[in-house]
Amino acid sequence: MSIDQGARIVIAGGGIAGLSLALALKQALGEEFAVVLADPALATAPRTDNRAYAVAAGGRAMLETLGVWEAVAATAQPMTEMIVSDSRTKDAVRPVFLTFDGEVEPGQAFAHMVENAALIAGLKSACERVGVELRPTGVRRFAAEDAGVDIVFSDGARAEAALLVAADGARSKLRERAGIGWVGWSYGQSGIVATIGHERPHHGRAVEHFLPSGPFAMLPLADGGRLGHRSSIVWTERTQNVPALLSLDSADLLAEIETRFGLELGEIALESAVSAHPLGFGVARRFVDRRLALLGDAAHLIHPIAGQGLNLGLKDVAALAETIVDAARLGLDPGSPDVLEDYEKARRFDTVAMGAMTDGLNRLFSNDATPLRLVRDLGLGLVDRLPGLKRFFIREAAGLAGAPPRLLRGEAL
Amino acid sequence: MAAATERTGSTIDPAEVARFDAIARDWWDPKGPMAVLHKFNPVRLAFVRDEACAHFGRDPKQMKALAGLSLVDIGCGGGVLSEPLARLGAEVTGLDPAPTNIAVASAHAEKGGVAIDYREETIEAVVASGKRFDIVLAMEVVEHVADVEAFVAACCAAVKPDGLLVMATLNRTLKSYALAIVGAEYVLRWLPRGTHDWEKFVTPAELGNAIEANGFTVGTQTGVVYNPLTARWSAARDMDVNYMLAASRRA
Questions:
Q1: CA gap B113, B94 in Å, rounded
Q2: ipTM
Q3: Contact residues on chain A for B1, CB-CB shorter than 8 A
Q4: pLDDT reported for residue B191
Q5: Closest CA–CA distance from residue A309 to any residue of chain B (Å)
Q6: What are phi and psi of A84, to 5 degrees?
Q7: How many CB atoms sit inside 10 A of residue B107's CB?
Q8: Half-sphere exposure of B197 (CA within 13 A, CB side)
Q9: Chain-centre distance for alpha carbon A105
Q10: Could you tell me which chain A residue has the CA closest to the CA of B38?
C-alpha cells in the first residue's frame, strides 16, 4: 500500500450512517484515498429485520447522488401526507388536527419509507463496488497522535489513519473510550416495532396517534404481503407494560394493535416478528475529539416521535463527508482540528434543536392530563391554520431548511 | 522523532533539530501561534489550485490535480502552503531567506513523508541559476520586500513560457490599516506587533502594473474577507484588505 496515513480514514460501525459516509468519501476521493469500514457484524448474515425508516427529501437526494437510491426505490413508499391526531385510546373517532400534505415541491414526496434491510444491502454492495475496504472486525484500541491516529483492530491488525469515525451506535464504545460524556435519559418507554399487513391501501398516508402512553405511528410501506398492503408501526408504550404485551399470543397482540391502528384499513395481519426497543434521549457532550468524529446515533439519540433519527444521521454524513472531501482536495489534513470543528459547528445546533423538539413533543403528548390536552389541541390547531408555520414544519421535516451540505441538495461532492 | 534520529549521523546539531521541532509544532499547530494562517490557508490553497487547474486543464476534484507541475513557493515559511500543494502532486521548491524556517519546513515534510525541495535562497538567485517553473507563488510576500518592481520582475522571470504566476498580498487602504495593522496586530493580537508595515502595502493597480511591465496579463483577481461570525475567510469581491491575483504571459 503506497497510501500514507494522511489519506486514510477508518470508520467503525456498518450501519446506515457509517456505510453512507464510507461510500460518499470513496466515491469522491477515489483510489488515492483509502476508506476502511470495520464492523464485526459484517461477518454474519444480516438478521431478519422489521425496521423501516422515513427518509426525508434531503436524505433521498443524497442517496440518489450516491447511486444507492435505485437499490431501494422498488420497495420505497412515498409519503405524501402526514396526519397527526390526539385522542384517548378508546375514542371512537379520532380528531384529525393537523394534516401535513407533503408537497415540498410539486410532485416531490416529503419523505419515503425505506426498509432497513434493503438500504443496508444496497449501501454495502455500492461500497464494495467503489473499493471501500470492508473489514469484519471491531476497533479494539486507538491512540490519537499529532499526525494521525493509531488504530488496533480486534483481529490484531493495525492501521494509521488521519481520522477515526465512531459510527458504532448510541452506546458507542469508541465515544466512551475517548472519554466524551453523554447527556441523556431514558423515557421509560419502548418502541414496539412490527410490519402490519392490511386489506385497504394507505394511499401514502402516514398517521400518528398521540395516545396517553405515547405516540402510535402507522407508516406506509410498499404494497405486498398476504393482504396486499403493508404499514410499519412504531408503537410507543410504557416499558413496564411491554413484557406483558409481547407475551400475548399473536391473535391477542393483533387485537391490541387493532384498537390503536383503527379499522379504516380493513382486516389486519402481522407480517413480521414484533420486537421492542427501549427509547431514550441523549446527546454527546462533544461531537469530535482529537482525530475522532462521532457520527449518527453515536453522537445523538432522539425519540422516534418525529421520525427524524435516521435523518439526523444522514445530515451528519453529508456534513462530515463535505468537510473531509474539501480538505483532502486541497491537500490538507482531513483529520485536523479545523476540519472537525467545521463538522461540529455544522451539526451541533441542528441536533440539539431537533432533540429538544422531539423531547418536548413526547413530553407534551405522552400523558393524559386534561390541561395539556387542551394546550396541544390548541397548538396543533394553530399550526394548522397558519400556512407559513406549516410550510416551515414540513420543510424542517424534509431536511431542506437552512444552508444544507451539497449532498443533501443532490449535488455530487 | 524519526527525523531527529536520522540526522544525528550528520553534521547537524541534534539540539538544533529539537529546537526546530518545537518551532515546527508552533508553525503547524492549527490552534497555536499560526492559527490565523491555518484559517486563511484553505482560501488561498483553493485559489492556487483552481487557477492552476483552469490554466493547465486539470480537474480540481482529482486528489493529484497538480501532478507533474513544477511549483516554487517564495517565502514558504514553515511550509504550510508547500506541503498541501506537494500532496496534490506538484513538484514543489520552497524558498525562504530564514534558515530556521527552512529547517522547520524540511523537518516537518520529512516526518510526513512529503518530498519538497526547500532552499535558503532568494528567487533572484534561483532565476540566475536558470531554473524555471510551471507555477510561481508569492503569497503574502510582496508586502515585505524592499523593491516591489524588482521582486515582481524576478518572479515573472521564474515563470516558464506557458506558466502561471499567483500572488497574494495586502492592499494599501484606510481599511487595511484599520484591519491588518490596528485590528490584527493590536486588538486581536493575531500577529506580532510590527509584522506589517502599512507603507509597504501595494494596491492591486500598482501590483498589476508591475506584473504587466514584464509582458504578463493579469487574469483572475479576488479579495479575501474575514467573517468574524463564522470565523472563516472566504473569497469575495472586496479587495480593500487582502487580495489574490493570477497572471500569465501575453500570447
A1: 16
A2: 0.86
A3: none
A4: 74
A5: 27
A6: -115, 130
A7: 23
A8: 8
A9: 23
A10: A338
Pairing, β A182-198 against β A229-238: antiparallel
Partners of A184 in the β-ladder: A282
- Nearest beta carbon to residue B45 from set A7, A146, A330: A330
* Separation of CA B180 from chain center: 18
Q: How many of the other CB atoms lie within 10 Å of CB of A390?
A: 17
Cell numbers 453523554 correspond to A182
Backbone φ and ψ of A147, nearest 5°: -95, -10
Q: Following DSSP, what letter does each residue of A141-210 receive, concatenated?
A: EEEE-SS-EEEEETTS-EEEESEEEE-S-TT-HHHHHTT--EEEEEEEEEEEEEEEEESS--TTEEEEEE
B61-102 tens-digit pLDDT = 999 999 999 999 999 999 999 999 999 999 999 999 888 889
Query: Are the beta carbons of A272 and A49 closer than 8 angstroms?
Result: no
pLDDT at B211: 97
Per-residue pLDDT tens digits for A223-256: 999 999 999 999 999 999 999 999 999 899 999 9
Q: Number of CB pairs < 8 Å for A and B?
A: 49
CA distance A203 to A199: 12
Q: Map out the domains of chain B with their CATH numbers.
A: 2-249 (3.40.50.150)
Cross-chain residue pair B61–A329, CB shorter than 8 Å: yes
Encoded amino acid at A137, one letter: T
What is the distance between the alpha carbons of residues A152 and A159, in angstroms, rounded to a whole number? 7
User: What's the gap in Å between the CA of B81 and the closest CA on chain A?
Assistant: 9
